[in-house]
Amino acid sequence: MTTIFEKIIAGEIPGDIVYRDELVTAFRDIQPLAPTHVLIVPNKPIPTVNDLTDADEALAGRMLHVAARIAAQEGIAEDGYRLIINCNRNGGQEVYHLHMHLLGGRRMGRMVMPPQ
Q: pLDDT by residue (tens digit) across 81-113?
């Protein structure tokens, strides 16, 4: 099944793309949780982190490198930012196409809320 991210990468639906190369595409989240909220996704569909293979090592590294590059472009690198990759249901993954959230532009607070 084609994900919304695959459709954005293919240009079938619009996305506010901030970076694209042969391995990854980055675009602004449509429901931002911070002043800067960019999703960095591999161009090839990989459902979760668990589905990465040895052949995807360069792609995973590219995602991190692109995150740092975008953070600098957005002017948030010096103050700091957060990178999040959710994996599967209990990890909070909603779209099953591997993606990294780049969040910044404000203080992020605690990483995980304590149990209620």
A: 999 999 999 999 999 999 999 999 999 988 776
pTM score of the predicted model: 0.93
- The dihedrals phi and psi of 38, each to the nearest 5 degrees, come to -120, 140
CATH of residue 78: 3.30.428.10
The one-letter amino acid at 39: L
- Give the helix ranges, DSSP H, for 1-56: 4-10
**Where in the sequence is the domain holding 42, given as residue range(s)?**
4-104
Q: Which residues are catalytic?
A: 99
DSSP string, 81-100: EEEE---TGGGT--SSS--E
